[in-house]
Input
Amino acid sequence: MTARNFMVGYPALIAVIVVVDAFATSLFVGSIGFLIGDSPALDASTAMRVVGISALAGVFASVLLARLADRVSIVKTLRLIQALQVLGYVYLGFAHGLLGVGDFSVPGSSLPIALIFFLGRLVSPLRGALPPALMAKDELLGFKSKLRTATLSAVFLGALAVGVLVALPVNVSIALAVVGVAAYGMCSVFTVALPSTAGVPASGAVRTYDSVRSSGCSALPFFNVLSRREWGRWWLLLTTFGVVGIGPAMVPYVVSDAGAWAAWLLAFSSIAGIAVNASSGSLVRRYQFSLSGLPGRIVLVLATFLGMANVMLVGVAMQHTGDTLVFVAVMMLCLVANQIAFTASTVVAWGSQYDAGRDENRTEIVALFSMTGAVGGAAAQIAGGEAFAAVGQE
Output
C-alpha cells in the first residue's frame, strides 16, 4: 500500500472517517469527568456504571447489527448509525446544556451519555469492515499500519483538546455537542461518498474476508469454532482486559476531581501509549505471545497484576488530589503502567487469536478474540464505578 493510494480514493475516505471518529471519541471520553461535574444529579461512580452497561449492550447489539449489514449493506447501515450519533450529540447539548434536564434527574443526565457510548460500540465493527470490503486483500496490511499511526495521533489531539476545552469559559456539554455534531456530520458526508454495495457482491454472496463477520458476526456454530481449552483462554483474556481496564476507566474522573489544571495528564497518557506501542513492536516481531506458550501466559499474568496495582495507584492519587506533586507523580506512574498492561494484554490476544482453532474459521476466531477487549473494557467501567465509590471520593 503506497502513501499515494492511502491519500486518495476509498482508502482516504475510510481514513478520514476513522480518524475523525477517534478524535471525537477521545475528546468525549477525556471530558466526561468535567461533563458530569456540571450535572449535580450524576456522580462519577454512577456515570461509570452507565458507560459500562451501555457499552456492553452495544457490543452484543453490534453482532446482530453486523448480521443485518452483511445482508443489506455495510455502508447503508453505517450511514444510519452515524445519523443517530449526530442526533445523540444534539440531545447531549439540549439535555445537559440548553434545557438543563440533566441537572435534576439521573435518567435525564445519563441517557445522552449512555446513547453516545452505545452507538459508539455499534459503529465499531461496521467501520472496521470497510477496508476489506473496498480494498484489495494485499493492500490491507500497509493501510492499517498507516491508519493506526494516524488514529493514535488523533487520540492524542483529542486528549490535548480536553485541556483546551475545560480552560475556556464555555459550557462543556454544549461544546462537546458542537464538536460531536460536526465530527459525525463529517463522517456521514464521507460515508455517503462510499459505494452502498460495499461488501455485498453482485451475486448476493458475501466474501468471507470482505464481510462484517470479521468484526463480530459468525456464520458457523458459535461454540464449535474454539475447543474447550481455547474457550478457557478466551475467558482468561476477557478477565484480564476487565482487570486492566478498571484503572483507565477511573482516570478521567480522578483528573476532573483534581481540577482543569490536571487535564494535561490525559494527553500524557496518549503519549505514553504511543511510546509503549512503538517500543513493543520489536518484541512482537521476535516472539509470539500466545496463551498456548509459556511467554504469553507469563505476560498475561504480569498484565493482570499490573492492572490490579494500577487500581491501587488510582486510589492513592484520589486521596492526594490536593497535593500537586504527589498527585502528578502517582498519576504519571499509573498512566504509563496502564498503557503497558493494556498493550501487553492486546499483544497476547493477537497471538492467541491466530494460534487457536482452524484456519478455515479464522475470521470468526478473530472476531471472538476481538470481543474480549470490548466486553472486558465495558465490564471494567462497571467495576471502576464500584471502586470509585468504595474509595469515597463522591
